[in-house]
Design brief:
elongated, 28% strand, Rossmann fold, 6-stranded antiparallel beta sheet, 9-stranded mixed beta sheet, single chain
Length: 430
């Protein structure tokens, strides 16, 4: 039942962050169709999106469906003209009228989004632009970082330490720039995170009860809470978002390319064209070669950080090595070593360290082990300083290798004898 107004073509247009159209109906009532651009997408089955319908600025219905499916459009219109929707207006705007307008809107929405919402710009090179960073060499503004390691290698400790460092503008471990930080905890209970936070605070020279903003949502997926994350970012001016871990994203198998791209696309949407950044914690494949899952994780982040760790039996510390294995817009940088000490309550000290203190983390370690092993086999028992001097090694490196290095079966390669002498166990076993 079209009146004079209904004979007018529905004008669909781009407006702000969406596509919209208006229909004026009886007594100056205004019907508003709106499709948020962030939800408009092309899938194998057609154009999908969220459609919202307002009457005089009051939401009367919404749905997320395939815009190209006539049956879905008709079902949505049928719901709207029921008593709880537009029933009071059905005399002048019945289901057929609504369906006709909705068909026009859903037909035009995608082309307008493509033509006006996704546009190419003339871009001019600017050599003066600097790559700004929240953590020097590890987290860049407007980008994403993935920290990856095998289980129990310290990646969550070091990631929380980076989160606290940025939030507090603390330079104890890293060179940082301050930015409000949100830690999205998808894996651990809230009490565990409170204990860990207290220890890290103290280790960084802060008050143990200094707060960090957490979103403790164990058992949920990133997909479940992404809208809440967006709200937190806006409400609290969040600059760094830490996701522990992206294995809980809930967007399909991590080994599938589409799933990996969906995860990183959602994270990149949080920071694109802003000075915000994200850091995602990821597990490494059991082959210990790369992040578990699709190669698109490496392709979609700006910085990939590999984590490895080793114990120093002499100092009773855990050494964590951060090596950048891939980066955009940053020059190569040497690995960073952080030493952690623990007591019965958890971590109680964190400091910058060197590879010499944790020889197992050194790229030259295998060569050093072989040289020390051959030297002791040839010379017999020797004191540590004499070994270091003879082989041209530092005292710290030599001491660490002698104390900590083990074979593939976990057995120590060197034994300390009375008088501070060292010997090769293989020599002793002959």
């Amino acid at each position: 039942m079209l009146n004079e107004i209904h004979t007018q073509t529905l004008e669909v247009r781009k407006n702000g962050s969406g596509v919209e159209a208006y229909r004026q109906i009886k007594n100056q009532n205004l019907l508003h169709f709106y499709a948020p651009e962030k939800d408009l997408r092309q899938e194998k089955t057609g154009i999908h999106g969220r459609l919202e319908v307002y009457l005089n600025d009051e939401l009367v219905g919404y749905d997320n469906f395939n815009f190209e499916k006539s049956a879905q459009r008709k079902a949505f219109c049928g719901d709207l003209v029921k008593d709880k929707g537009l029933g009071g207006l059905s005399a002048i705007y019945d289901r057929d009228d609504l369906t006709r307008d909705m068909t026009t809107f859903t037909f035009d929405a995608w082309p307008i989004h493509v033509q006006e919402g996704i546009t190419a710009d003339m871009v001019y090179g600017d050599p003066t632009l600097e790559v700004e960073q929240y953590v020097d060499g590890l987290i860049i503004k407007g980008g994403g970082t993935i920290v990856n390691a095998l289980p129990k290698k310290g990646k969550s400790f070091i990631s929380m330490a980076m989160a606290v460092s940025v939030d507090a503008g603390n330079n104890t471990l890293f060179s940082t720039k301050q930015g409000n930080t949100l830690y999205v905890n998808l894996e651990r209970n809230a009490s565990s995170m409170k204990r860990r936070l207290a220890g890290i605070n103290l280790a960084l020279g802060l008050d143990y009860d200094r707060p960090l903003r957490f979103l403790n949502v164990r058992g949920k997926s990133l997909l479940d809470i992404i809208d809440s994350v967006r709200w937190q970012i806006k409400e609290y001016d969040i600059k760094l978002i830490v996701v522990d871990s992206i294995s809980r994203a809930g967007m399909g198998s991590l080994v599938e390319d589409n799933s990996a791209m969906r995860i990183t696309d959602e994270l990149n949407k949080l920071v694109e064209e802003t000075d915000r950044s994200w850091l995602g914690i990821a597990h490494r494949s059991w082959g210990n070669q790369h992040v578990f899952g699709s190669v698109h994780f490496l392709a979609a982040c700006d910085v990939m950080v590999d984590i490895d760790s080793a114990h120093n039996d002499f100092s009773k510390e855990l050494g964590i090595k951060l090596s950048v294995s891939g980066q955009n817009d940053l020059p190569p940088s040497p690995p960073k070593i952080v030493a952690l000490s623990f007591d019965s309550m958890g971590v109680n000290r964190m400091r910058r360290a060197s590879e010499d203190e944790f020889p197992e983390l050194s790229e030259e370690e295998d060569l050093n082990v072989e040289r020390i092993h051959k030297y002791l086999d040839a010379k017999g028992k020797q004191k540590g300083p004499d070994i270091a001097k003879a082989l041209g090694l530092s005292s710290d490196s030599t001491r660490g290798t002698l104390n900590a290095h083990k074979d593939d079966k976990g057995k120590k390669l060197f034994v300390k004898l009375p008088g501070n002498y060292w010997a090769s166990l293989s020599k002793l076993r002959r």
